[in-house]
Amino acid sequence: MNTHVEFTTQPVCLPTAYPATRELGATVEFHGIVRETEGGSAISGLHYEAHEPMARRQVQRIIDRLHITWPCHAVWFIHRLGWVPVGESSLYIRVHASHREQAFGFCMDLIDLLKKDVPIWKLTPPPRPGAEAASPPGSK
Amino acid sequence: MKILTFASAREKAGFTEIDIPVDPAETPRAILRRIAPRLPLADLRAAIDCEYWDWDAPVGSASELAIIPPVSGG
To answer: Of B53, B44, B51, which is closest to residue B71 (Cα–Cα)?
Structure first.
């Protein structure tokens, strides 16, 4: 299995490489995107912080462990650090596998474990002056 | 030993990084009690040289202790 683990302060640059195998039957891509509200308050973006050496090690370990449950051909993991504006991807995952069950399962479990054990934090900025989150339709 | 704090743990501890002498027999709990006695450890995890570590296990010859608050990546 080929893996690519990257932390970057730049916008996610989508990988163009695909595994050179004719057994590739499923590709799942996930974008985690910064929404315009956080905790009910309007925001213009989020700041991400990490213990990067530890985060890199934890992500690689999770990927190696998940490969036992969900065998895959290749995994790309890119996480933004620093300021990420609303509407941009903070997280990008691409999983290449032979079958959809493996690709979806790997991607879902990777995200779940990321949110449990990988030392990355999103820091919410103070609310914008005078800005309140819009109520969802039908909530009033 | 280098002591690192992150996110909410940094705000509560009042420092980002410090270097202090540490006895190999000391535990992360004892070290934190010494340098930040008012820092509540309930929601925090310790990591030694980039591996999660028991608060009550000796740090040995490690070079780094990181204080890890609840994570929120993604």
So the answer is: B44
- Within an 8 Å CB–CB cutoff, is residue A126 touching chain B? no
Whose CA is closest to A106, among A58, A74, A138, A140?
A74
B47 touches chain A (CB under 8 A): yes
pTM of the model: 0.91
**Domains, chain A, with CATH or none:** 2-11+35-123 (3.90.1170.40)
Tell me which residue in B8, B68, B74 faces A119 most closely, judged by beta carbons: B68
Write the pLDDT tens digit of every residue in B2-52: 999 999 999 999 999 999 999 999 999 999 999 999 999 999 999 999 999
Per-residue tokens: B42 = 């309930």
Q: Is the ipTM of this complex over 0.90?
A: yes
Task: For domain B2-68, say whether CATH 2.40.50.140 is its number.
Answer: no
